Amino acid sequence: KVGWYNAILQPTFHLPYPDDTLAFVVLSTPSMFDKALKPFVNKERLKIIRDPVDQCVSHHLSRVKEKFPDQKVDVIFDYEILPSRKPKFLAQTAAHVAGAAYYYQRKDVKLDPWGKKKIYGVCIHPKYGGWFAIRGLLLFPDIQVPFLEQSAPVDCVSTEEKRIELLEQFNFHWQNGRYRDIIEVKERYSEEQKAYFATPPTERFRLLGLTQEAQ
User: Which molecular function terms from Gene Ontology are attached (predicted)?
Assistant: First the structure.
C-alpha cells in the first residue's frame, strides 16, 4: 500500500495517492538479460535505441498496462526524477515496504565503525542477493486495499558482521560486485551480462550487436 511507503518518508518524497492505494514494485531478475533485453533489442533493431534497458523495461510495463484496459495504471520508472532533481520514488524503500528485498542501512548496524563517512544502504534479495534491480512502480489509483496485510522483507543478512561487510563492500568496493554475493544466491548475472553492465553506456551498443546507425 502507498501508505506503508509514505509513513516512513519525509513529505517531500511522498507519493500523491491515498494511503490504501494498491502499488506493485517491479524487479528484474538475472534472467531478464536473456529473456527480455536481447529479444527486445533484436526486435527493435531498426528503430532508435538510446538506452536499451530502460526502453526494454518501458516496453514490457506498457504491455502490463494493456492487460488492464478498464483500470487506470500509473507507471513510475526507477530513473525518473522531479524538477527538483529528486527521484520520483525511492526504489529501495519501496522494495523494503513491499516485502520484496531487505534494505540494509547504517541504522541496521549497532556498533557503527564508519565515523563521519557517508554510508549508503543497499537492498538484498533472499534468492538473488544483489543480482537484481528495482525497475519501477505500478500504481492502481482506483483500487483501494484497506485490508491488505504488510509482509516484512526477509532479513537474510542477519549478523552484525555480515551487515558491516555488506555495507563496506557496497560503499567502498562496489565495482568488484562482491557485495552481491553476501549470501548464497540461487542465480546470478551471466558473464555476458556482467560485461554489459561493467561497460560504459556509450560502448554497450557494440556488445548487443547494435550498429552506430541504431544508436
Answer: cobalamin binding; cyanocobalamin reductase (cyanide-eliminating) (NADP+) activity; demethylase activity; FAD binding
Distance CA(22)–CA(143), nearest Å, equals 6
Q: Mean pLDDT over residues 57-64, rounded? A: 95
Averaged over 94-123, what is the pLDDT? 97
DSSP string, 92-129: HHHHHHTTSSEEE-GGG-SS---TT-----EEEBTTTB
Q: What is the pLDDT of residue 44?
A: 83
Average pLDDT, the chain: 94
Q: Read off the C-alpha cell for 183.
A: 549470501
164, containing H or E segment: helix 160-172
Quote the pLDDT of residue 211.
Answer: 58
Contacts of 180 (CB under 8 A, 6+ apart): 129, 130, 131, 188
Report the Cα 15 to chain-centroid distance in Å.
17
Q: Domain span at residue 166?
A: 2-204
Distance CA 127, CA 114 (A): 29
Residue 106 lies in a domain: yes
**How many domains are contained in the chain?**
1
